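Reopening this one. Same input as before:
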Amino acid sequence: MANIYEVRRYGKWLLLAIAAAMVVGFMYVSNNMVKDLAASERERMEIWADATKEIVHQLEAEPIAMADSTGVVIAPVADIDFLLRIIQGNTTIPVLLTDDAGNILNHRNFELPDPVDSLAPLELSEVNERFLADKLAKLSHTSNVIHISIADDVQQHLYYEDSKLLKRLSLYPYIQLGVMIIFLVVVYFAVLSTKKAEQNKVWVGLSKETAHQLGTPISSLMAWNELLPDMGVDAETCAEMNKDIQRLGTIASRFSKIGSKPAMESADAAAIAGAAATYMSTRISPRIAFSTHITGDALPVQACPPLLEWVMENLIKNAVDAMEGHGTLDVTVGGDAHNAFIEVADSGKGISRKNFKNVFNPGYTTKKRGWGLGLTLAKRIVEQYHHGRIYVKSSTPGQGTTFRVELPLTKA
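Same output, byte for byte:
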């Protein structure tokens, strides 16, 4: 059963690698689209610059073509109209045209803070001048510039910003990535909560059914045990059988408590751990050196004693199994300012660090025979019912393992 968790762990990393590869591919495609659009916008700006240069050249070379209604002489209408349509066709890319001295000759498509009168578009307020000057200062540190040779010693410079479409497209992959991450996190926690709810129903159903199934034979055994003295069975045998029947009753009671919320009461964690250790010490191999170190002070906690004893028995049984019949086992009980703690240390085969959490998963076991539910039940009892912690404090393969249980102390 342990292989299930090995496969799940490697499968999780595989899925993460696939997801990362998909994200990288998505970002690569998106960035290429942004680069293509940026290249397209630069081509448009180069055409815009060429049109500006051509207009200047035509105005200087052909001063006698025809005049408009104001008497101003212009170049041939067809060429000028075509070039002007190129310039006016740019309605999306903000541009600044400057001379060699850095003076702004023209601007287009900027959202100026101070609206410009349509009758006097070239007249700028101080606010707009500062705004355009700031834009020019920022654009001068970018590669978005095209130099226009007007004459041998005269140049103009065309600075341009990315269009709104390009800016939005540049941000879109990151926004979509964020949405995907949020969606995956929500789905993950939703699935996790559903899984936990289903596990709780399984635990409750299994526990109640086990308690119910044990109830009938226990009642029957109790009745037979009362008849045995009348059938000539000696009293000592009947007394030992009665102990076993009571033990079965305790086990059934524990299962019934797992199946529903147990009643909690004020108890001494040291006394509960000591009683469980004493009970188990007479039921393990004499080749195992069993020792206990229990504080003499009371450790008041809110607990269900039968369930807490069950946790102790599970930990001790697992320690005995890990040592395969010989070794040392030590139970230490103490407390600090906030918690009572119980530690069960053995000299068994140990646990690899990667399995520190897996040992509490349902079905995880290294034994040829076993359901792998003991530590899972212990974790449920400690964390869900007693609001404490149970974990592998330390373990070294081939040297041993220490499990630690922490329970919150009750205030005096």
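So the earlier flakiness isn't reproducible anymore. For the record, The CA atoms of residues 1 and 369 lie 11 Å apart.
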